[in-house]
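Figure caption, in words: inputs first, then the predicted bound structure.
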Amino acid sequence: MPVTKMQLVLFIAYFIGIFSVDAFGDGPSAWKQYRFRQFYLDASNLSATQTTTSQRTRCYTDNTTAPDLPTNIIDIPCKQTARYVIVETTYDAPEDDYLDEHGAILEICEIKVYGCEVDTYGVDCMPCIGCQYCDVSSGVCDACEEMLMRSR
Ligand SMILES: *[C@@H]1O[C@H](CO)[C@@H](O)[C@H](O)[C@H]1NC(C)=O
Ligand SMILES: *[C@@H]1O[C@H](CO)[C@@H](O)[C@H](O)[C@H]1NC(C)=O
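Bound structure (2-acetamido-2-deoxy-beta-D-glucopyranose present):
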């Protein structure tokens, strides 16, 4: 029976703030990224086997349909605190049907995850200044947290 879903799970240490994920598909010149269509990327605190897609936070859905191809490098801004990045597809590319290949196949070369631990920010993951949790890229203290502290 053909595979109906193919997934790739990255375990990314303990809680971090992801702010950019590159799904990078590239290869020999004759190679086409048709198995890169219609993937989706979720951030999750629980592993793929412990969750349904509704328990994860969706950061990206590719909607490319054949014969179009997605660009082979996709930057995905995804500011989430999570332990797992789950990349999945249920897409069966028509291009390989003549080889009698049926089912979901996902072809990705490289996924880069950029982030920091929750109490740090920036390229060098510096400690947040003046608060415990801050915006992972700007270092701006969480407004809700500040209000909470002021109301105490
Ligand atoms: C993961 O847990 C943290 C801390 O409880 C929470 O702030 C964050 O939103 C959760 N992430 C997801 C993707 O559910
Ligand atoms: C793909 O379609 C979904 C549902 O309409 C939408 O939320 C999402 O933003 C689209 N993805 C892109 C990359 O445009």
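The beta strands are 6-24, 40-44, 57-61, 73-76, 80-89, 110-117, 120-121, 126-127.
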